[in-house]
Amino acid sequence: MCDGNHKPMPYRFSSICCYIFLLTTLGVRLNADELEGFWRFSEQAIEQITNHTLESRKAEKNSGDSSASEISDAYRNHLRKIAILDDGRIHLQLIQYDWDDDPYPEYYRDFYLDYRTTGEGFSISNGDKKIFSGSIGSGIMSLKDFATGTVLKMNRVSSNKLPVITEGNFDQPKLDRQPKPRKLADPEYPAKLQIQGLSGVVRLSFYVNTDGSTSEIRVLSSPYLDLDKLAIEAILDSTFHPGKAEGKNVRTHVKLPITFH
Known about the structure:
Elements: H1 15-20, H2 32-35, E1 37-41, H3 43-60, H4 68-76, E2 78-84, E3 90-98, E4 102-118, E5 121-126, E6 129-137, E7 140-145, E8 151-157, E9 180-183, H5 191-195, E10 200-208, E11 214-221, H6 225-236, E12 239-241, E13 243-245, E14 248-250, E15 252-260
Parallel strand pairs: 4-11
Antiparallel strand pairs: 1-2, 1-8, 2-3, 3-4, 4-5, 5-6, 6-7, 7-8, 9-12, 10-11, 10-15, 13-14
């Protein structure tokens, strides 16, 4: 990851994948212990998503920049963390990682969704827009996409198979030298987004590792989902001179605005 050549990110592939990020569930008589935790797509679901992505590219006459195996591998390194909030909504955290490059996740995405039980199952919505229906049992989550009718399955992930997640457990040392950009990548800003008038500032937080690579990128605020994806990609492609404490490179926490205009 430190050379900027990160693996393809699932949110690049198709419109359905943006909604796939919103996976979550609560079935009848399920308690929080059964629902909350980490989940990963099954191999069958990964094959479905990969095939759909390739078919969508073909229909849109867009060859894309990732092969079928790269798309599948990216989803194998994809986790969903689900938590029930005090107000009854679902907090879904999307986590992308690659243990081959870094023990820390590459980025997080956070979604807050509504759910309700429906007979023997559940439905998930984002405001008035219905997204998924389905059920959960024996550690397997089944989800039906309202838009496409596609049914996807996810498996619960045990805690010993998770990447290193910092989240509030980071105690930054007093620095002798702040981290500074070595190569700050310019974010892509496709013409179609400019024509649509999508502009503004995406504010990110992330960690600069001891080798100057970046990890655990999180969007603090963003005017549009399309822009925060591009901002994350830019930071993944960037490298830094790491911070120093007592003469040694140390991992540091950074906040940075990315402007699109």
